[in-house]
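Homework help board

Subject: predicted structure for assignment chain

Our instructor gave us this sequence and asked us to write out the predicted structure in token form, then describe one feature. I got the tokens but I'm not sure how to describe them. Can anyone check?
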Amino acid sequence: QVHVVESGGGLVQAGESLRLSCAASGPIFRINDMSWYRQAPGNQRALVAGISSGGSTNYADSVKGRFTISRDNAKNTVYLQMNSMKPEDTAVYYCNAQITVGFSFRDYWGQGTQVTVSS
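My token output:
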């Protein structure tokens, strides 16, 4: 059974930094894209950043220049380095991984980790 687990959330003050990690485990044949989404109360879940297996990245306009996504393919892990954080970054952050298990390909989601930025 595949598991996707986030870690690293917490409470920080505006201007500070935080690093999220997300590790996938289980009978994984291949991981394609890995992404971070976030959902604030009353809002829909939205893409923050994504990274392909080859390292190509994309970011939401609101985080460009402040957040950096990276991955370690050997560890099936994706990271999100968040710098110069703002109160509007407060949300539950979810990891998404496109994983092939045997002949099956689908999206897997983590349980989410809370990030709170105080002003």
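Reply (TA_rk): Your tokens look well-formed. For the description, you could write something like this. The longest strand covers residues 91-101. That's the kind of observation they're looking for.
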